[in-house]
Write a sequence for this structure.
């Protein structure tokens, strides 16, 4: 009797404990373990997007272009040397200015956008104001996602053509939630389509009213239009390129072109810190999108640079004899035999006050008025609207050259290219060449030259220390950067052919 | 209601049994060892529930049948049995149960008869291992238990020793065992990673909760080692469990015990180290001068300088003349050449006194017993810059409310007030592979690293200043002006209750609440060097060089400006811990047919802890004016630009619950089988059900061979074979199952705004780190228990360990921490105790133990950088131990005296790519584990009448040590210089004779950065490694217990005196260490080695 009673008592107690705890424990264990931020509001979504901009600069590609030559007296890291030789760059993702770094940091930026997009629809919006805010956030997320993939596909895939079916990169639209995920490369064409979808959604909903500060570190309307301008130019859809460029530039494109001949810029030239501050200032209307980039490219003490002779020749050349190209100076002396234009402030984030360790960074201009204007001129040219192109170029050159007549005409262009007696050199071709020439000068050591080289199949020659040279032909497969080793091994991607 | 009913029922049946037995009325008295009556002792008829308890005089009266045996028992006393032959009154004296406890294994959840215990565990009585004068009891375990390895990586009060039981169960996670005090898991005050114990950072001072305990309150330790022993702790027990039981009250009259220790910590001396004296230093400085490394131009702009720099600066300021003909001013230098400052004498106390006083009161009756204690520790400090006071108070009461209900209440409080030299956290420089610490004024590091030609005082006895951080510096003044005050307050209240509704069944419950608050208040006085360094802008050179000056980004042309024009800093770090713990369990035992013993334990526990940490920086605090603050707005800007937070807040919340069932079966105490199943949940692993819960289990068995009827070997008293197999777990470190977004503020010149970033992506697959363990063991006792031993062999397979993996990066996180690593370990433990002599007056006992574990990482996809692997702490590399030490391959000096190295292709180079991971094993030389594989101790105890002499040797073996950095491309006249430099490369051809590199010419040093980096590699090379093996004379203690006859006259019940030496000498260690303590990591900050200590102690009982 007693025994049985005890057993029952115990059974009840133990099962009571078990049942009670199973009911309550899940709630008990739902407590968030630390002060991590819960992504549960529009404000926080917007803050997460603030980091959806890659810290990796595409400007490392300059080391593969014809802008640089064999520079001595500087530190050349292995990755920088490999870039110069168009070898597959083997340094891992922790080394800045490498394809791996670009890949990892850009996908990291994309992940931020995807986390926001994954939860955005779950937020309850109760007012029109909130609805508009939500649309603005969605637009920024999609634009950053599109921009990230766009840059990746242009580096790691072949250049887009209508029939292009080569492998691009994975287009990631959802957050990764498992430890090791495998991915597949989508075709360049498919990636472009996806970019276009996101870009158009973004353009549709983009709204500048919610950005604090200048809004220049976010995809504002102008930045989105500038992106569309570049996207459709690269895609070969010149009509759309012109459409979006014009929407952005409006009636007075000159407003968006920094005037290097102005007193303000002239006065700033005396200071190697003041000049870049002005150049990259968020106040300038032509700086559409600024991004912080962790990079050594703008440092005069690392990597190959434009050789002094080449640099002087490049800026001395113009269709306007006797004028000065205001882009030539100020310039840093780089190593023993190179120069580097002073455009960007070399900043350094120390890991602590007295530390000599930290991250080298600069503020880069990811989209500018100059690019959009030159994009449109190029699109006009392709459309054979040569006067349209010439008009745009005239707006541009007036703010670059000083000390003489800077009116651009087919005559002085023809003279400049020495093609007066060459009928095969059409006006269209001449304009195209001139646009590429101005782009080269305008964006030197900013990372756009590589894409032009790729777009137009320009071959590149690099000289070596012993005087010999190596070349990269227009169709060389090495123009398509190799997929990072870890993405091949862990992510299951197909490597690019070599 | 049911509960009450059951209680009543049980009571009722109890009464009815009593009535049914009738024969003789036995009376008697139960006494303690001192002949005092024992109150509340239980007198029971063996095998029945009938019984009584003794009254205030220890007397009892019980009705028994003739021929029955009565059992007299009491908590804390050895039980006695008595065969009733007649009704003559009996007097029975009980012994204190020190020996009995050895027969019981206290798991913290239950007490298990040693004979029926199937796991590997070891119990230690505090009295046996006590080290007088030791403030942190966990350190007393060194050399005492096979398989338990205690590394005193720092000796500073409050720092935690590295304790490892059976090696390591985790690669990147915590490897400290779980501490359990009176059944409750002891939470650490702050989460400090085991690898960071050696960091010397200020938070290491609150890494040990054990340091808050009064050693005199502790009764015993139980070390639970294998999976079976720890199974009941489930998912957090992979590293073993140390169960600490504190003292309880005892029945009887009030007893008072006083114990006092006076310890003298001896000062280290230069004899132990191999450093140059000041005359030798000066000759090196002359060479620096000749090589153009130190001269008048470099001195005025030098960050740090000593005698030579001071001379040049004074010449530059026209306060001093050149020597004849523009030579060095020999008269000036001569003073410093002969200074030969003994920094140990300046900074360390000759015999620093540490006092510990502890008073305890015990009393009890049949209704309750109590234990109260208070203790006070006052440590004057080894150095002039540290001291500690600690007060502890504890009370533990047990109330026997009825035969079936017992209620306990334990309250404890302790308070610590500690001062240490001011320090900031150290940093790792991945470029050079070195750790550095700004403004380090650790006295031990200072004494070893500062030139002996520098003087603390000038001829007139005034403080003498040299330069450090571009500002005047004097260590004595700096230690006065730059210090951290730490206060720790720790309170806990605990109740235990036990209900025994029947003989076979008991319910136990424990409830604890604990609150601890730690404040670290770092004063950087306005006159301190650390504050003055912010104002060092004397010359253009200094303005350009001083990182602590602010360049206004809006006015780039301007000179850098001072951002701390007045005042100093106040760094205030505060951390709080709030912890609740509750457990309830039911324990049921029954023996059927006198042969089958069955035991079932089931229950659940819940843990709740919240930690908050905040830190603030007061900028421009003027201490002399009562602490007013004048903050320059530029300093905020300055900090923002460099992403330095002047305020930080973080909190963590830990929620944990577990359900457990343990069952045991024994057949005639011969065959024992045991199982445990536990189901744990934690909030640390996110929402996924698969991740947050972990079932663990264990099965074990034992065979008591000596209980077999066929076993008839007369000289073997006990032989038991054991085997266990099971799984335990460990919370995964540094990994998150939930999306982890963290907030920060953008670092850019304009448009500063807050942002969120992804720290960790969601990882729904994250799970606990797990450990499978197989243990086979044997316990044996022979020759009337004169020799007893215990042997264990184990194989451990730790899997699902957290490792870092390089991912495709496409998901957004290039490096992910996940369950991606495995580690195997094999090892054995042996311990032997012998009673070599057991005479009437003379006894000699020996204890020997050894533990040895080899661990090997069998899966780890992503290795460390070369920079990580060459440091003191080693790195985890596939195929190697948890932390393996790697060296650069030294290839001798080149023809210019510069060190060279072999690269992976055996070519001679000056520099490796320290960021490289892939070629690590081919580039570097693997030296061995940095953590000792083997460790143990040998204790000999001799007793003669009241005298007792104890000698403990502890040893560790099979590991490697990186020697402290000593060689540089160039030296300053501020740095101490290693004596080896005397034999440095001087002229071509010396490379055949010496391995000590040349001091570089200025031109070479400036033109070739790789050559300078070669010196960093040299410090991490095969030439700078020593064996860690050592044998240490840990403790020698002579004690004398004054005979009762003598003390009785003084009204005392016991008294003893002892004199002991601690940490006396290294009997064996690698000669290459040259004084470097193999246990101690000299990392500056707050770390100090364990001193040699002499302790006198007195114990008196009333």
């Amino acid at each position: 009797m007693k025994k049985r009673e005890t057993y029952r008592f115990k059974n009840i107690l133990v099962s009571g404990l078990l049942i009670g705890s199973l009911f309550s424990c899940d709630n008990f264990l739902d407590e968030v373990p630390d002060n991590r931020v819960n992504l549960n509001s529009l404000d926080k979504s917007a803050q997460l997007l603030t980091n959806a901009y890659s810290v990796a600069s595409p400007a490392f590609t300059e080391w593969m272009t014809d802008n640089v030559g064999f520079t001595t007296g500087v530190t050349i890291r292995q990755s920088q040397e490999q870039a110069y030789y168009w070898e597959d760059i083997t340094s891992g993702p922790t080394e800045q200015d490498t394809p791996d770094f670009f890949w990892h940091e850009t996908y990291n930026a994309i992940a931020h956008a995807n986390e926001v997009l994954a939860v955005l629809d779950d937020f309850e919006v109760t007012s029109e104001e909130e609805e508009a805010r939500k649309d603005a956030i969605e637009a920024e997320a999609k634009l950053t996602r599109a921009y990230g993939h766009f840059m990746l596909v242009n580096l790691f895939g072949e250049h887009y053509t209508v029939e292009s079916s080569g492998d691009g990169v994975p287009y990631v639209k959802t957050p990764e939630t498992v430890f090791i995920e495998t991915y597949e490369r989508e075709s360049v064409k498919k990636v472009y389509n996806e970019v276009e979808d996101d870009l158009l959604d973004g353009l549709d909903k983009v709204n500048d009213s919610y950005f604090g500060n200048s809004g220049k570190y976010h995809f504002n309307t102008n930045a989105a239009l500038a992106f569309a301008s570049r996207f459709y130019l690269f895609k070969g859809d010149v009509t759309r390129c012109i459409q979006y460029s014009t929407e952005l530039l409006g009636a007075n494109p000159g407003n968006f072109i920094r005037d290097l001949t102005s007193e303000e810029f002239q006065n700033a030239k005396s200071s190697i810190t003041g000049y870049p501050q002005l150049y990259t200032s968020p106040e300038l209307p032509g700086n559409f999108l600024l991004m912080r980039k962790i990079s050594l490219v703008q440092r005069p003490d690392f990597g190959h640079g434009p050789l002094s002779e080449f640099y002087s020749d490049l800026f001395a050349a113009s269709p306007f004899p006797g004028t000065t190209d205001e882009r030539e100076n100020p310039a840093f002396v780089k190593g023993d035999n190179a120069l580097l234009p002073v455009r960007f402030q070399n900043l350094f984030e120390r890991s602590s006050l007295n530390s000599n360790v930290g991250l080298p960074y600069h503020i880069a201009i990811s989209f500018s008025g100059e690019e959009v204007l030159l994009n449109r001129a190029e699109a006009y040219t392709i459309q054979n609207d040569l006067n349209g192109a010439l008009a745009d170029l005239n707006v541009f050159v007036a703010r670059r050259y000083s000390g003489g007549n800077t009116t651009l005409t087919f005559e002085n262009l023809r003279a400049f290219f020495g093609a007066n007696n060459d009928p095969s050199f059409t006006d269209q071709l001449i304009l195209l060449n001139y646009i590429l020439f101005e782009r080269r000068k305008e964006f030197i050591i900013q990372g756009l030259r590589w894409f032009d080289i790729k777009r137009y199949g320009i071959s590149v020659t690099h000289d070596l220390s012993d005087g010999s040279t190596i070349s990269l032909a227009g169709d060389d497969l090495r123009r398509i950067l190799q997929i990072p080793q870890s993405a091949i091994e862990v992510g299951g991607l197909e490597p690019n052919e070599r | 209601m049911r509960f009450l009913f059951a209680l009543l029922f049980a009571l009722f049946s109890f009464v009815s049994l009593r009535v049914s037995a009738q024969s003789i009325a036995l009376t008697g008295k139960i006494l303690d060892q001192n002949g005092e009556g024992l109150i509340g002792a239980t007198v029971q008829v063996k095998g029945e529930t009938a019984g009584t308890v003794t009254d205030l005089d220890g007397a009892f009266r019980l009705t028994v049948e003739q021929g029955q045996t009565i059992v007299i028992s009491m908590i804390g006393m050895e039980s006695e049995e008595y065969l009733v032959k007649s009704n003559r009154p009996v007097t029975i004296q009980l012994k204190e149960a020190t020996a009995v406890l050895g027969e019981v294994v206290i798991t913290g959840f239950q007490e298990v008869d040693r004979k029926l215990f199937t796991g590997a565990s070891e119990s230690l009585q505090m009295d046996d291992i006590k080290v007088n004068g030791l403030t942190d009891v966990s350190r007393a375990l060194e050399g005492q238990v096979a398989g338990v390895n205690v590394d005193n990586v720092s000796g500073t009060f409050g720092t935690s020793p590295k304790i490892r039981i059976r090696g390591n169960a985790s690669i990147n996670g915590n490897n400290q065992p779980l501490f359990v005090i009176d059944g409750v898991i002891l939470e650490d005050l702050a989460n400090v990673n085991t690898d960071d114990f050696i960091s010397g950072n200020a938070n290491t001072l609150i890494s040990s909760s054990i340091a808050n305990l009064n050693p005199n309150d502790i009764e015993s330790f139980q070390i639970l080692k294998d999976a079976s022993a720890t199974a009941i702790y489930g998912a957090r027990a992979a590293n073993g469990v140390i169960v600490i039981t504190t003292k309880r009250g005892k029945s009887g009259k009030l007893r008072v015990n006083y114990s006092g220790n006076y310890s003298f910590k001896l000062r280290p001396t230069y004899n132990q180290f191999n450093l140059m004296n000041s005359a030798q230093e000066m000759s090196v400085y002359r060479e620096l001068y000749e090589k153009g490394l130190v001269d008048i131009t470099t001195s005025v702009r030098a960050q740090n300088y000593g005698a030579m720099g001071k001379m040049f600066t004074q010449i530059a300021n026209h306060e001093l003349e050149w020597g004849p003909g523009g030579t060095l001013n020999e008269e000036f230098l001569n003073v410093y050449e002969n200074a030969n400052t003994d920094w140990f004498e300046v900074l360390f106390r000759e015999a620093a006194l540490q006092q510990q006083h502890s008073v305890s009161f015990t009393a009890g009756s049949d209704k309750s017993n109590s234990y109260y204690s208070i203790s006070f520790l006052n440590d004057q400090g080894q150095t002039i810059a540290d001291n500690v006071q600690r007060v502890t108070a504890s009370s533990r009461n047990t109330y026997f409310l009825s035969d079936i209900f017992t209620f306990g209440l334990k309250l404890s409080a302790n308070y610590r007030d500690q001062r240490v030299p001011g320090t900031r956290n150290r940093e790792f420089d991945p470029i050079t592979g070195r750790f550095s610490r700004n403004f380090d004024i650790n006295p031990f590091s200072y004494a070893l690293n500062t030139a002996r030609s520098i003087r603390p005082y000038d001829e007139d006895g005034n403080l003498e200043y040299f330069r450090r951080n571009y500002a005047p510096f004097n260590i004595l003044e700096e230690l006065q002006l730059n210090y951290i005050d730490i206060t720790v307050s720790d309170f806990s209240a605990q109740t235990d209750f036990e209900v025994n509704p029947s003989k076979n069944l008991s319910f136990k419950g424990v409830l604890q609440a604990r609150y601890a608050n730690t404040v670290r208040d770092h004063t950087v006085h306005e006159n301190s060097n650390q504050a003055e360094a912010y104002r060092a802008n004397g010359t253009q050179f200094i303005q350009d060089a001083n990182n602590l000056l602010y360049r206004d980004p809006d006015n780039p042309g301007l000179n850098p400006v001072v951002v701390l024009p007045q005042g100093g800093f106040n760094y205030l770090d505060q951390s709080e811990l709030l912890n609740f713990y509750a457990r309830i369990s039911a324990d049921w035992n029954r023996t059927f047919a006198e042969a089958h013993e069955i035991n079932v334990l089931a229950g659940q526990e819940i843990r709740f802890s919240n930690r908050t940490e905040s830190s603030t920086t007061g900028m421009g605090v003027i201490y002399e004016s009562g602490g007013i603050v004048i903050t320059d707005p530029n300093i905020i800007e300055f900090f923002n630009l460099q992403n330095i937070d002047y305020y930080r807040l973080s909190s963590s919340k830990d929620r944990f619950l577990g359900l457990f069932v343990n069952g045991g079966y024994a057949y005639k105490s011969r065959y024992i089988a045991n199982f445990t199943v536990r189901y744990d949940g934690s909030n640390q692993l996110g929402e996924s059900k698969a991740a947050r819960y972990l079932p663990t289990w264990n099965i074990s068995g034992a065979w008591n061979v000596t209980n077999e009827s066929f076993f008839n070997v007369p000289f073997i008293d006990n032989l038991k074979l054991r085997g266990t197999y099971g799984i335990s777990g460990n919370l995964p470190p540094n990994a998150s199952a939930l999306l982890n977004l963290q907030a920060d503020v953008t670092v850019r010149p304009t448009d500063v705004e807050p942002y969120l970033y992804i720290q960790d992506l969601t990882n729904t697959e994250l799970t606990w780190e797990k450990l499978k363990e197989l243990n086979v063991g044997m316990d044996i006792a022979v020759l009337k228990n004169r020799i007893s031993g215990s042997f264990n062999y184990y194989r451990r397979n730790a899997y699902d360990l957290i490792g870092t993996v390089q991912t495709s990066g496409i998901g957004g996180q290039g490096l992910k921490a996940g369950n991606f690593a495995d580690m195997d370990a094999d090892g054995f433990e042996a311990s032997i105790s012998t009673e070599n002599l057991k005479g009437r007056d003379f006894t000699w006992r020996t204890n020997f133990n050894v533990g040895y574990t080899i661990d090997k990482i069998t899966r780890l996809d992503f290795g460390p950088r070369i920079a990580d692997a060459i440091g003191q702490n080693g790195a985890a590399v596939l195929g190697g131990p948890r932390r393996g030490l790697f060296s650069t391959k030294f290839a001798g000096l080149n023809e210019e005296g510069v060190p060279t190295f072999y690269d992976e292709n055996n070519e001679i180079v000056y520099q490796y790519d320290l960021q490289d991971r892939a070629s690590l094993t081919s580039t570097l030389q693997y030296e061995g584990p940095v953590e000792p594989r083997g460790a143990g101790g040998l204790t000999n105890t001799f007793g003669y009448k009241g005298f007792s002499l104890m000698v403990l040797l502890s040893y560790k073996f099979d590991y490697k040590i990186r020697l402290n950095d000593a060689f540089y491309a160039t030296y300053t006249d501020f740095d101490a210089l290693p004596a080896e430099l005397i034999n440095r490369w001087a002229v071509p051809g010396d490379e055949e004779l010496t391995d000590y590199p040349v001091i570089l010419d200025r031109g070479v040093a400036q033109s070739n950065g790789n050559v300078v980096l070669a010196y960093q590699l040299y410090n991490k090379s095969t030439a700078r490694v020593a064996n860690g093996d050592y044998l240490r004379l840990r403790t020698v203690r002579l004690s004398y217990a004054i005979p009762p006859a003598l003390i009785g006259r003084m009204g005392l019940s016991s008294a003893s005196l002892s004199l002991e030496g601690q940490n006396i000498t290294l009997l064996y260690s690698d000669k290459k260490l040259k004084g470097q303590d193999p246990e101690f990591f000299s990392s500056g900050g707050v770390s100090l080695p364990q001193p040699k200590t002499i302790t006198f102690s007195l114990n008196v009982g009333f």
Remarks:
- Chain B touches chain A through 96 residues (CB under 8 Å).
